[in-house]
Design brief:
The complex is a heterodimer of chains A (165) and B (785).
Chain A: E1 10-16, E2 19-25, H1 31-38, E3 57-60, E4 63-66, E5 79-81, H2 94-101, H3 111-124, H4 130-136, H5 148-159
Helix pairs in contact in A: 2-5, 3-5
Chain B: H1 21-25, E1 41-47, E2 53-59, H2 61-65, E3 69-74, H3 75-80, E4 85-87, E5 93-95, E6 101-102, E7 108-114, H4 117-124, E8 128-133, H5 140-143, E9 162-169, H6 171-179, E10 183-191, E11 203-208, E12 215-219, H7 224-235, E13 242-245, H8 261-273, E14 277-280, H9 283-289, E15 296-304, E16 310-320, E17 334-337, E18 349-357, H10 374-392, H11 396-403, E19 412-413, E20 419-420, H12 425-436, H13 438-450, E21 454-463, E22 475-476, E23 479-480, E24 483-489, E25 495-499, H14 508-520, E26 527-530, H15 548-575, E27 582-585, E28 588-591, E29 594-600, H16 601-610, E30 621-626, E31 635-644, E32 651-661, H17 668-687, E33 692-693, E34 699-700, E35 719-722, H18 740-757, H19 771-780
Parallel strand pairs in B: 1-14, 12-13, 16-18, 25-26, 32-35
Antiparallel strand pairs in B: 1-7, 2-6, 2-8, 3-7, 4-5, 9-18, 10-15, 11-12, 11-14, 15-16, 19-20, 21-31, 22-23, 24-25, 24-30, 27-28, 28-29, 31-32, 33-34
Helix pairs in contact in B: 10-18, 14-15, 15-16, 17-18
The chains are: A alpha+beta (165), B alpha+beta (785).
Chain lengths: 165, 785
């Protein structure tokens, strides 16, 4: 008879897109699966399992993190932003508008991660050069667009910042 | 991006923003992994660590006892249901789960079905398989050696590792051309194995309802209707009880055309267990077991006269098929459409001899963003032409120009039997040369060489053959390669268009709505485009090989024209006029000479349900199954400029110009997006993408650490241009374009790097041109620092 050690669970509290969640999770649960399976936020995707492609990128306390190699328990006490949290109620985030205006997406699979790293870049550097944009998104792979329109999408967002309310 | 702004009236040639973006931008796409059904189980696959081995036994008892595991499926169990093997799309067979032997590393050996995906993966480690390793065959050349181990000993009539032998063209005429040639130039090259690697891996959720027997299979399928038929044939399920639903797909590029073992086992498991079963492939599974691409060894001479006129071409090609012949390609053509290898040139005689061999590698190969091996053909001729230009001392651009099929020869029948529908190659070449600054660059190259710098300029003037295809010649497993559109106009003048093809990011929801808008004046935002659900769309062969616009686009156009025909009868009724007295413009019928007497398509649609004349059927809809009269032949010229670091072998792309002619452009923004994506994949193949194997058959390139894809950092910017030569047989003059850049660009990149070293006698550097390989070439040529 094979016995599996009873999975111990650990209580964590994370704030995701402004809402606080307290859940008991297995320590080995990956953050991407926590978001997708426990919270139903399926906009965060898995593309490679090895932290190369960036489809799983989310922001942890404002910093891009590849959630396929980050444990959910590591996010305890932190504030997360996923693609579902980019838009402000009915108003799209400028980066979302930029991607639409400049045809910065095709299949859409890398898009959430791409938009989040781009949004993080613009928070830090509101007027990046093309080189700075290319460097910032170089941890994320897009197999469809060839990146040129993603660069333009980020430039569009930089030129059309969110009006402060 | 500098695509030429075209004057447009109406909906063609307009860069309408994409309708599909809204859900993707919000994180509300619906990809395969997002699908969750009540009571759903999870499947994971145990794969072989050996490339070739006999299986003595498989012990699943420890795995079965793990809490949370529901079942472990082996080949033995499948064999009881006659499901251990399945047909491939090329009419060969492939194991679903291994029974006797494994024939590649990564082959599917057993599947665990569990309540939780983590538990399903845990249980894989508890399956004990006793293997006896066998000698492996890792090259097609070795496979054809009479002493090579027989890989497919499961096939009764198979006595060696030969897969196919296929020829095209005229051997005698070609022989004669070579006998009379002033000059013969030869190229020996290998287009290495690479992988489409869409960012989303494959997967499915199979849901067989035990009460009704209905199998609903959500799967990453570029060809859902064809897959339904394959499932009916493989599993013996009645076809009306199978519904394939292909949700949003995270990129395909040919990788999601074949049927893979995971789909079949998940469906069988759902059938046996009475619960939905989900299988999501991991990246390693995707790279080592699913449809790879290329792996063509090509060798051939070109016959020329002293002044550079091409008179004959002979090519021998050997393909590495892996352990099963699983190309997804038209049945009549054993090496796909490789015989388009005469390309853009008017070569009067050609002979192509192709052979395939089994090896201990993954089955394939698929046409990675390519119309059935056109990529390899285009690469070969465009590389060979450059070699010829060096040997003859003629500028590569001028040698191309001299030998282009002239515009007055279209429709042009090639020496291997293709009938090119339309083309005008010189303007595309001229535009590319102009945009890249060719003349100045050649002068700069001279100066650079004097200064010890290595500058290279590479060209490729490709011609593709896409849009399969006419039913007299093109079928897959006997199913003719038509495609379909069903258009229903609702009472309020809105519409739904249902298609047999399936987008994986190409923007069908926008482009096809624009075709309806063009034909009927119903704005694109009022047209819903539905694809990928076999119960709710007409039968079609799917999206690959740049066939959606040439075939389903034509079907859409014809269906909309049929709707317009009926609308005319309704308008005549409403306007109390004779049909002959009506004329159509944009979105309405008007009585000739009385512009105030008109009915818009919306008014007519309402009448189709509320006020149709006696004797006429209610409703306003039409269906078309379009059998294209010919293929379409997009073309263009690409120019690449590189500079090489003599110390490291790194090559830096200074400029890329791509001039494409795909006939009428429906949505230029989407077309340019397709071209830039294809250029990037072409750059990836030229620079870094490689699936290779060690002597034991271990796959190197089994994850994104080893299989390199271009990021924004390496990918150069692109400058695009266009010429427009409409297809004479397509209803709106459009040709396929999704793959032109993957087909055309690899040769341009390689030509550029070789051109930088050509003055020192370098003629060939194999892809991917990694810095170490380039440095070797530099070193041998005495150019390294």
């Amino acid at each position: 008879m094979i016995t599996q050690a009873k999975p111990t669970t650990q209580e964590i509290t994370v704030t995701v897109n402004g809402a606080e969640h307290s859940l008991a999770v297995e320590p080995r649960l990956l953050l991407v699966h926590f978001l997708r399976e426990k919270l139903g936020l399926t906009g965060t995707h898995v593309g490679c399992d090895t932290t190369n492609c960036g489809a799983c990128t989310v922001l942890v306390d404002g910093v891009p993190v590849k959630s396929c190699t980050y444990l959910a328990v590591q996010a305890n006490g932190k504030a997360l932003t996923t693609v579902e949290g980019l838009a402000d109620e009915a108003q799209l985030h400028p980066i979302q508008e930029g991607f639409k205006e400049e045809h910065g997406l095709q299949c859409g699979f890398c898009t959430p991660g791409m938009m989040l790293v781009s949004a993080a870049l613009l928070e830090e550097n509101p007027d990046p050069t093309e080189e700075e944009i290319r460097w910032a998104i170089s941890g994320n792979i897009c197999r469809c667009t060839g990146y040129q329109n993603i660069v333009k999408a980020v430039q569009w967002a930089a030129s059309n910042p969110k009006e402060s309310s | 991006m500098t695509g030429v702004e075209t004057e447009h009236k109406g909906w063609l040639g307009r860069s309408v923003k994409r309708k599909e973006d809204t859900r993707f931008l919000a994180g509300r796409g619906n990809y395969i992994e997002d699908i969750k059904l009540p009571n759903m189980l999870h499947m994971s696959i145990l794969r072989s660590p050996f490339a070739h081995a006999k299986i003595n036994s498989i012990d699943t008892s420890r795995a079965t006892e793990l809490p949370g595991v529901v079942a472990v499926v082996t080949g033995e169990l499948l064999a009881e249901h006659n499901l251990a093997w399945m047909p491939t799309l090329s009419g060969d067979t492939q194991a679903v789960l291994a029974t006797d032997k494994v024939r590649m590393q990564g082959q599917e050996v057993a599947c665990v079905i569990a309540e939780d995906p983590y538990v399903a993966h845990d249980a894989l480690e508890l399956i004990d398989v006793d293997y006896d390793p066998l000698p492996v065959v890792i090259s097609p050349q070795a496979a054809l050696d009479p002493t090579a181990p027989l890989i497919r000993d499961d096939k009764e009539d198979q006595t060696d590792n030969k897969v196919y032998h296929w020829e095209a063209g005229d051997p005698e005429a070609t022989e004669k051309a070579f006998a009379e040639a002033d000059k013969v130039v030869r190229l020996v090259t290998h287009y290495p194995r690479c992988h489409p690697a869409p960012l989303e891996c494959c997967g499915c959720v199979a849901d067989v309802n035990p009460a009704t027997g209905k199998a609903t299979i959500y799967m990453t399928s570029q060809a859902p209707h064809a897959h339904r038929t394959v499932f009916a044939l493989v599993a013996g399920l009645p076809e009306q009880n199978i519904q394939i639903i292909s949700p949003d797909i995270g990129g395909g590029f040919g990788n999601k055309v074949p049927v893979y073992p995971g789909y079949v086992v998940a469906t069988a498991a759902s059938l046996l267990l009475g619960r939905p079963v989900k299988w999501i492939e991991d990246r390693t599974g995707n790279l080592i077991s699913t449809g790879f691409a290329r792996d063509f060894y090509m060798d051939g001479p070109l016959a020329l006269t002293e002044d550079g006129t091409m008179t004959g071409l002979r090519v021998k090609m050997l393909s590495d098929q892996g352990y099963a012949y699983a190309d997804a390609q038209p049945s009549k053509f054993k090496a796909g459409l490789f015989h388009i290898v005469t390309g853009s040139y008017d070569i009067p005689a050609a002979h192509v001899v192709t052979e395939g061999a089994y090896t201990n590698k993954a089955p394939g190969g698929v046409a990675f963003r390519c119309s059935f091996r056109v990529t390899e053909a285009s690469f070969f001729i465009e590389r060979l032409v450059q070699t010829a230009s060096y040997e003859l001392g003629i500028d590569p651009a001028e040698l191309r120009r001299k030998n282009f099929v002239p515009p007055e020869k279209f429709p042009y029948t090639s020496a291997t039997g293709f009938e090119y529908d339309s083309g005008n190659y010189e303007p595309a070449l001229d535009q590319a040369l102009e945009r890249v600054g060719y003349k100045e660059l050649r002068e700069e190259q001279k100066r650079a060489r004097e200064e010890g710098r290595l500058l290279g300029i590479g060209l490729a003037s490709f011609t593709e053959v896409v849009g399969a295809g006419p039913s007299r010649q093109y079928d897959i497993l006997g199913i003719k390669m038509f495609d379909s559109a069903e258009l229903r106009v609702h009472p309020t003048g809105k519409a739904i268009l249902k298609l047999g093809v399936k987008s994986q990011g190409q923007g069908h929801e926008t482009t096809f709505a624009q075709i309806v808008a063009h034909e009927l004046g119903i704005p694109p935002e009022d047209v819903t485009v539905q694809e990928g659900d076999t119960d709710n769309t007409p039968y079609g062969l799917g999206t690959y090989a740049s066939r959606s616009t040439p075939v389903a686009g034509a079907a859409t156009s014809v269906a909309a024209q049929k709707v317009r025909e009926k609308a005319k009868k309704l308008a005549a009724h409403l306007l109390e006029a004779a049909e002959d007295d009506l004329e159509w413009s944009d979105d309405k019928f008007t009585v000739k000479g009385a512009p105030d007497r008109a009915k818009t398509i919306q008014e007519i649609a309402f009448a189709a349900y509320t006020d149709h004349p006696e004797g006429m059927e209610a409703g306003l809809e039409a269906t078309n199954y379009y059998d294209p009269p010919n293929m379409t032949y997009p073309f263009g010229t690409y120019a690449v400029v590189v500079e090489i670091d003599r110390g490291t072998g790194q090559w830096d792309v200074k400029k890329v110009v791509a001039v494409d002619d795909c006939g009428t452009r429906i949505n230029p923004m989407i077309v340019e997006g397709q071209i830039m994506g294809g250029l990037t994949e072409g750059f990836g193949m030229a620079a870094m993408e490689l699936i290779t194997f060690d002597e034991e058959g271990n796959c190197i390139g089994s994850n994104f650490v080893d299989y390199l894809l271009p990021t924004a950092w390496e990918t150069p910017p692109f400058e695009l241009g266009e010429t427009v030569t409409p297809s004479p047989h397509h209803p709106i003059g459009a040709k396929g374009v999704g793959e032109s850049a993957t087909v055309g660009s690899p040769a341009a990149f390689v030509n550029a790097v070789v051109d930088a070293l050509a003055h020192a006698g370098v003629r060939e550097i194999d892809m991917p041109m990694t810095p170490d390989k380039v440095w070797e070439a530099l070193n041998e040529a005495g150019l390294a620092q």
